[in-house]
What we know:
CATH architecture: Alpha/alpha barrel
Distance between the termini: 54 Å
Organism: Nocardioides jiangsuensis
Number of domains: 1
Largest sheet: 5 strands, antiparallel
Strand content: 5-15%
Mean pLDDT: 93
Number of helices: 14
CATH topology: Glycosyltransferase
Low-confidence stretches: 1-5, 357-365
Protein name: Prenyltransferase
Amino acid sequence: MPDAIPSLPGLLGPQDVRATAAAIARAQEPSGAIPWFPGGHVDPWDHVECAMALLVGGEVDAAERAYGWLFASQRPDGTWPIRTVAGVVEDAGADTNMCAYVAVGVWHHWLVRRDEAFVRRAWPVVRAALDLVTALQLPFGGIAWARNAYGGVADTALVAGSSSIHHALACGLALAELLDAPQPEWELAAGRLGHALRAHEDLFDPKPRYSMDWYYPVLGGAVREADAAARIAARWDDFVVDGLGIRCVDDHPWVTGAETCELVMSLDAIGQRDRALGQLDAMQHLRDPDGSYWTGYVFADDARWPEECSTWTAAAVVLAVDALAGTTPGSDIFRGATLPSGFTDLGLECGCAPADDLRAGARAD
């Protein structure tokens, strides 16, 4: 990573970023898998986030081994197990959001490394994952959140997970354009999904207590501009704890580092840079001297909980710093300037007129 990082509140210096990336690398298993913490379980979403942070922090070999494990462990149907411990599958089900996230990691790798051979090796993995995910789109546009080990599919979708899938589809379509391999089904799915997140949040399985449901439609790119600013403002006081970061759950006295850093990237994506810097600075109380990060802090008890330093919290910090400092070409991954946008909301089954029809009617008036 570059040695020059702007001196701004909350932004780590290059040595600190490298130390945090090194902390992630220390947890990596010989197979290349990255568990939540040494001896903990692996899930594909957090694994990809850690691989992205390793690239940003200069741990290139560890990042390549992480992607090697991911590509080798994908199942023939395009999925990965929800939970693996030391190479043993403990939950053979598939979470659609976890599976889709490979597309984000591969597009980020391209932005940072410009390695076309890597992209071509990864493309069949991305294609299989996103084909599976789009096949599980529900009639109203949300994506069924899981399929169990026996093939049963959930009949509900989650706001946070579907928002992350919206981002993954954009990254997948960017890869498709790079390789001249059009995927019109993905584009149609992204348009329907974006519409559902903007217009039919009530049809998703509600999780309003959780901060992720608050900011993820912004982070995933489905909600932007004035609507995004209004969404963030509406629940700011419910989740933000001055000087500490944000709550994971609105009625618990518990702030968490990863959620705070995801909010940082959401704020950055909509131009609220000062607020983003403030939240990144606020959560630094979770930093350990070795560069790792504690998962959370129960401020009512003045206690860190759980008593673990999680790799994915460290990864979120590294990606948030990169987003604000712009130290790598991948720093735009959540702002989305390198991604296709404005997916047409065709094929709707919710009874709404497509946006193009609405715009045409407005012009006629």
